[in-house]
Amino acid sequence: MEKLTIVYLIYTFLAFYFLILYVLTFVQNRKQFYEVIKPTKNYSLSIVVPCYNEADTIQKTIKALLDSNYKGLEKIIVVDDCSKDDSFNIIKEYSKKDKRVLAVQTPKNTGNAAGAKNYGAKFVTTELIGFSDADSFPKPDAIEKMVGYFNDRKTGAVTSRVLVANNVNKLSKIQAIEYKVIAFTRKLLGFLESIYVTNGPLSIYRKEAFDDVNGFDEKNLTEDIEITWHFVLKGWKVHMAIPANAYTTVPVKVKDWFRQRIRWNVGGLQTIAKYRKKYFQCGMLGFFIMPFFVLSWILGLAGLFFLLYRFARFITIKYLVAKYSVEAQVAIINFQDLNLSPSILFFFGMVLFVIGLIYTFVAMAHSREEKIKHPLHDIFIYSIFYLLMYPPLLIISIYKFLRGKKSW
Known about the structure:
Elements: H1 3-29, E1 45-51, H2 58-66, E2 73-80, H3 87-97, E3 101-105, H4 113-121, E4 128-131, E5 136-138, E6 155-164, H5 170-191, E7 203-206, H6 207-212, H7 223-233, E8 237-248, H8 254-274, H9 284-328, H10 344-365, H11 376-386, H12 390-402
């Protein structure tokens, strides 16, 4: 057996393993999938919103938070990171209208969301501290559906489900599918105590736990991933309330989408590098979250490699056959050369694709997002072409990480 075939079979086994793991986790926990835990008390909560040049969306974000039906929400601390637009003036106007809104500004631009978040956290005295992006809009009942998890004293963080707010073009509509699949998968990981990120659009932390990990790492481009790993490392539980919906604005231009995904990947690599000595240590962080995070990237890169290799091999063989057939003046194609029996590798590849497609449909079916319909061709574009962009983006991200990319 060729070495490449052995590697491909290992790749196939790992892919099947993760798919079966998801299926079994879903089947075992499907009745608790949309569970909402009722809080045993009215937890006091402050929400910090970092803002930089968000004049177009910050009003809508503040209004969405003010419309929350959670009675324990005491403060909405909007931190302007020395914006160059009219953001701070807008925030100050809202603070005059509602005493729950506190407008603050950093002494100087911190250069990242983590810096603004940590600055805003200094003004928090409540039992819980939450964070929402300045271009995100939580539903009125989102917070209420999250705080019940804090009945468990060991719970350090609870994150929401993120959905796309601006379905305006093909790119954003494909991302809407992606976000639903991500949310579905993240909830499954929650049942395995392996959530690896608490998202920016809406996440709530126990203030004690937030202080225990010293807040956000301002050197990391994805502070929401890093702080989640830090919570798990310190022994705090992380949950996801999938009925809690927060809508966010996604990139509608390829250039902006590309920059966002590079930042996500570089931040992920920074987090891996920071916690690299914790592999196979520290419970679920070292034994599952970190291996899962790295293996998912390896599978993506391996899949792209095999696809390119098979395609290049097919083209090369066909070219050589055609070239020598012409030179020898023999038939380029004859019926004896036709092979209609697919190889076992092709069979495994098709099975993986079909199972992955079914997984996408199941995730979509459990999104429960009203009035949003996705055409079948958009789902196929996502499953075939969009996902193929992940590995090249990762390769570029690795290059930038090795070059020391640290800025937005």
